Amino acid sequence: MAGEPQSDCLFCKIVDGEVPATIVRETETTVAFRDINPQAPTHVLVIPRVHYPDAASLAAAEPGIIADILRESREVAELEKVEHTGYRVVFNTGSGAGQTVFHAHLHVLGGRGLNWPPG
């Protein structure tokens, strides 16, 4: 059921503390942790504590939580000291866009030049 933890979801297991992660920040609704395969000097994932397969389904069901994720991306950028030099926030939605874990999450990338267009 949407919003409920999924026993086979890596990110749900991180939220529950079953799988270790390098936590950067936590709030009542979000968890931010370092990506295990960083694509930039700063590469932090911000996820909701509730399970939705992607950003679109989360936004439709719980817009307040997606706002929390975006707000946390700014907090992470400040903590990582990239808020003034620039950073990118990315939601990959669907396997064709590069999503590999189907629990909504936002990437905060910074600490180097980020060319456009990406990928």
UniProtKB/TrEMBL annotation:
Pfam families: HIT (PF01230). This is Histidine triad nucleotide-binding protein. CDD domains: PKCI_related (cd01276). Residues 10-119 form the HIT domain. A motif (Histidine triad motif) lies at residues 103-107. It comes from Streptomyces solicathayae. It comes from the Bacteria. InterPro entries: Histidine_triad_HIT, HIT-like, HIT-like_sf.
